[in-house]
Amino acid sequence: MSKTTNRLLKFVGYILDYAPIIATVIVATLASLSAVRSGITTAEMLQWVLVVLALLATTQLVDRFRLMRNLDVKVEQLLESAQGLKGANAFFVPRIPDMEERLRQAKSIAINGITLSRTSDSFWGTFKQRIAEGARIRILIVDPNHQALDIAVNRFHKHQDPNRLRRESEHALDNFESLMAEQTLGEAFQVRLLPFVPPYGIWLIDADTPRAEIWVELYSFRDEPEPTFHLLPNRDGEWFTFFQRQFEIMWNASKQWKPEKNAA
Predict the structure, then answer these.
(1) For the chain, what are the domain ranges?
(2) Per mean pLDDT, which of 51-65, 77-91, 150-164, 204-218 is the most reliable?
(3) CATH number for the domain formed by residue range(s) 90-257
């Protein structure tokens, strides 16, 4: 719809809103002036009164018509949303959005993935800041020394080179090692290794707080994008709980990782 059409519709709306009111005021004013200047009979006064009442009634009818029309439009929109007429596009997004600002405010962060190499590079500074401010961060990746990583590489779109994938995993662990050196509390930053390929990536932020949210990334097979969806506890109830539980199950099925020099 063009801007000219929008302006015209707004102008018509203003006329429908205010014309009956203005007409009522004008008629009532003319009736008063006629009564003062020339004097009018009772019958004429009743006629003026009826005209004014008719205009007032018209104003009320116009208001109610516009109100009902607005309600009809909103009900139709609500029904469309409830019936899912927008389809999967209303639910999925192509990828997790930029999380920089959100993570900088988080008190707890839990992320799982295959290698999280790119994540470890992109958010290294953010993780460092959150660790310094007392946030808890948990990281889950596939064990680079486990055959599961050789299986995981088969689904990748850009390459299917297990050695390259293993280097990416080791690069991420190097980044995580430097973050471990930043922590003052032993449990502030934890990394664990999975002996299997996770079916999806989960970003669980501020778990068990009013600001909790989850992003779930479905891993595709040699294709892009990787469909992603967002969950909130008060809106998505059981599905939020399900994916939060999924992260905890994977966490408990993994093994703790520490840099070799600190391993004991």
Answers:
(1) 3-85, 90-257
(2) 204-218
(3) 3.30.870.10
